[in-house]
Amino acid sequence: MLLDDLIIAQKALAERGANIVVARGGMVLFTGWSKGLRDLAKIALESPEILDGSSVADRIVGKAAAIIFAVNGVEAVYAPTLSRHALDVLEKSGIKFHYEKLVPHIEAHGEGICPFERLIMDIADRDEAYRRLIERFRELGWG
To answer: Which of 99, 122, 118 is nearest to 107 (CA)?
Structure first.
């Protein structure tokens, strides 16, 4: 079922022109179109349980997204673009993943490295990185 859920999420990502899709049990549980981490932040702050045991298709996965996936029990991830830092987190967490393009880090439009990736880039402990992300999301009023 896991592979089926990843295919469902990946197909929905493409067909709906979404930025993130969460699937579990053969059903799409969440579809988001917001740029950056806003939709994933909302999930992490308001309903992280939908990530547990799910498969996620996300257009761009950096370390911040990978940390959120790992801490909340995501089983599989598809990303057209994946950062090297995200790959390390996914591998260490035992999350199955597939990507199209591997990049050194995620770029924010005209800002250099994504501010969320930069925030946790040097934090090795995933729970500490997650805590810092959640704190930042709350500061931004995203939840």
So the answer is: 118
